[in-house]
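Please decode residue identities from the backbone states below.
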């Protein structure tokens, strides 16, 4: 069955916004990387199942993002040493095609940002691999005591709140005077960031979330589809 004309028009509009974007923002967990950072950290610290259950509740919308983050971290209570060891022993796995896509965006002079509800220490590692400047990374900051023990997280970061990704995009628009910004991600928090993002592209290459797939005007399962679109510039 052919899609209604209005949806077709909106799909082509979304593609056009992507081609002329001044900045593209990516979610990280299950988008830029294959896994969910907090679940990997929990597994590494031996509390995987308990944390996965809270993640499931959070995704289902039965608790706020900050509450879910707090509860999961209270169970994990990772030390600085454990986080460093996780990054060394189990570095985040980049999603196929992301390196080429980010390179191409940079070649087109499109700024690239990583906006994540995950942890800055892990996201910075990813940014470095993709040649994304660290001041283009927005993520949650873990806190540690002098002896390296877990001391909580920085609750003042916009990414610690529900709706935080949209707040970051609004801030970036103001700071850099961007007129056209695109958000790309797999989850509901990414979809909610549009507006203020001018367009949202749903990504299902690692995990398909039905509510995102249904609502995204443009939904892709590989970064190759986005690369192909950039060839038209």
């Amino acid at each position: 069955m052919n899609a209604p004309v209005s949806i077709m028009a909106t799909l082509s509009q979304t593609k056009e916004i992507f081609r002329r974007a001044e900045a593209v923002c990516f979610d990280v967990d299950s988008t830029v990387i294959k896994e969910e950072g907090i679940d990997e950290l929990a597994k590494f610290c031996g509390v995987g199942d308990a944390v996965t259950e809270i993640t499931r509740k959070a995704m289902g919308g039965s608790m706020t993002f900050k509450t879910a983050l707090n509860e999961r971290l209270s169970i994990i209570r990772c030390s600085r040493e454990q986080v460093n060891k996780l990054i060394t022993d189990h570095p985040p796995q980049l999603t196929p095609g992301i390196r080429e896509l980010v390179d191409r965006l940079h070649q087109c002079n499109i700024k690239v940002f990583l906006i994540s509800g995950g942890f800055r220490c892990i996201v910075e590692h990813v940014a470095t691999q993709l040649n994304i400047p660290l001041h283009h990374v927005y993520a949650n900051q873990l806190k540690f005591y002098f002896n390296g023990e877990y001391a909580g997280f920085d609750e003042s970061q916009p990414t610690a709140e529900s709706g935080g990704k949209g707040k970051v995009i609004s801030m970036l628009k103001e700071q850099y005077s961007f007129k056209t910004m695109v958000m790309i991600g797999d989850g509901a928090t990414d979809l909610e960031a549009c507006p203020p993002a001018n367009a949202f592209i749903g990504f299902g290459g690692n995990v398909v979330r039905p509510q995102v797939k249904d609502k995204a005007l443009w939904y892709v399962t590989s970064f190759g589809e986005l690369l192909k679109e950039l060839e038209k510039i």
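Observation: Confidence is low (pLDDT under 50) at residues 1-8.
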